[in-house]
Design a protein that fits this description.
By secondary structure, this protein is mainly beta. Helix content is about 10%, strand content about 35%. The chain has five helices and 26 strands. The site of fe (ii) ion has 5 residues, from loops.
Length: about 425
């Protein structure tokens, strides 16, 4: 049957719309419908959050608004954003933080009817062009000249071959003398952090270094490599982002985190970024707190490092207790819809012990597995096949400084010498 372009569209039975948001469609256009309160008239707004293009159907209804599952932005039934939690409760909302709403919504005959535009004056079909171009997918040609993880060294058998995917190609790997033979041939290969790295073309940026990795006072722990259907660029931003903690990580450590994100600086040399962020936190597990030697309120320093394309590190340093936890996070863009995720951790001084014993390491690793599972579950709500590189395709706020710097690095390596993005804010919107 031919679908009308404009006019009233029957979408879903009314009894399927309650105070949990549901996605409804008018042709190729997606909306999210919800009741702000039980029995209240249905509100229908654009289906994707303008911040990071997350599907709001994965969100929840809070105080009459639909709350995005990623960073908790809230939108009323008219589409207006009422809260950006990372900016603080009293901050003004960025003017562009608004969801489109359809021209009309009607509840009749047990059906939710939606008219995207005025049926009496059929106009343009409201094309949604955001993020349909200028995105960095896992198959982007620029990634050929980067270092990528291919396998854990331990995954390569003593005899025979093992297969691995990178940038849409299948490779086979086998041991050869002291090293590895990779087919088809790559420009460079190396072993670091117990990982076999390859660069299909001559790499433009050196492999990440981390002194903690070779320091005998640090105990290592590995998470099993995992996989996500999200593109590596989107996962990289997730790793650099702290504003999602209270919302995505409520089941692990997020409930105790502030939704407000203190201003922080990001330094970039064009090939990556570094951001040092100091916070206060409660440290009830510090033995010196239990002995009454130190107060429970302590300082923590988070140092985020990114090297192009997808090598990341977070060093969490308890400045008073002296404990250090370093998380190495590497992303392997296997195919358009597959990214392999490597997480190595390094621990020092946990519980007051210089080199933590295996049971402490195992406990920390198990906790990180739960944290990563929360991040990967959120990825199911993402709608993009690549990281949008054109700034106006999303909405950037102050807490997105690292995400903006990441996009600039990826864009620079994608189109070296290109004119700057005219939609790039010199500073993210407040
Ligand atoms: S609040 Fe929706 S993606 Fe950030
Ligand atoms: Fe996270």
């Amino acid at each position: 049957m031919r679908q009308p372009v404009d006019g009233w569209w029957p979408t879903v039975p009314l009894d399927s719309v309650g105070t949990a948001p549901v996605e409804v469609r008018t042709g190729d256009r997606a909306w999210v419908a919800f009741r702000p309160a039980p029995g209240a008239p249905v509100g229908v707004v654009e289906a994707r959050c303008p911040h990071r293009l997350v599907r709001l159907a994965h969100g929840t209804v809070v105080d009459g608004t639909v709350q995005c599952p990623y960073h908790g932005w809230r939108f009323g039934p008219d589409g207006a954003c009422t809260l950006v939690p990372s900016n603080g409760p009293d901050a003004a909302v960025p003017p562009r933080a608004r969801l489109a709403a359809p021209w009309g919504v009607r509840e009749a005959d047990g059906v939710l009817w939606v008219a995207p535009v005025d049926p009496a004056a059929p106009g343009s079909p409201l094309p949604d062009l955001r993020a349909t171009e200028e995105t960095l997918t896992n198959l982007d040609a620029s990634l050929e000249a980067g270092w990528h993880p291919l396998l854990l060294v331990d995954e390569v058998p003593d005899h025979g071959q093992v297969a691995a995917w990178l940038l849409g190609r299948e490779y086979t790997v086998e041991r050869a003398g002291d090293g590895f033979a990779v087919t088809p041939p790559v420009a460079r290969s190396a072993v670091r952090f117990d990982v076999l790295w390859v660069a299909p073309a001559e790499p433009r940026v050196p492999l990440l270094e981390c002194a903690d990795d070779t320091d005998p006072l640090f105990a290592p722990g590995w998470l099993e490599p995992d996989r996500s259907a999200s593109p590596a660029g989107v996962l990289a931003e997730n790793f650099l982002d702290a504003a999602h903690f209270p919302f995505v990580h409520a089941g692990t450590f997020g409930a105790a985190e502030e939704t407000y994100v203190e201003p922080f600086e990001v330094e970039s040399d064009g090939d990556g970024l570094v951001s040092v962020q100091d916070q206060w936190f409660d440290n009830p597990e510090d033995p010196a707190v239990l002995q009454g030697i130190r107060p429970v309120r302590q300082r923590r320093r988070s140092t985020y490092v990114h090297r192009w394309p997808f090598q990341l590190l977070l060093r969490l340093e308890e400045l008073d207790a002296g404990a250090v936890k370093t998380i190495l996070f590497f992303l392997q863009p296997e195919a358009l819809d597959s990214t392999r995720v490597y997480t190595k951790m390094l621990f020092h001084g946990i519980g007051g012990v210089a080199v933590p014993p295996p049971d402490v390491v195992a406990k920390e690793v198990a906790f990180e597995v739960a944290v990563l599972a929360e991040d990967l579950a959120l990825q199911a709500a993402m709608t993009v096949r690549g990281l949008p590189l054109r700034m106006r395709d999303e909405l950037h706020v102050r807490s997105d400084r690292s995400g903006v710097a990441l996009r600039r690095v990826l864009a620079r390596h994608r189109s070296p010498g290109a004119a700057p993005d005219p939609t790039d804010p010199t500073d993210p919107e407040a």
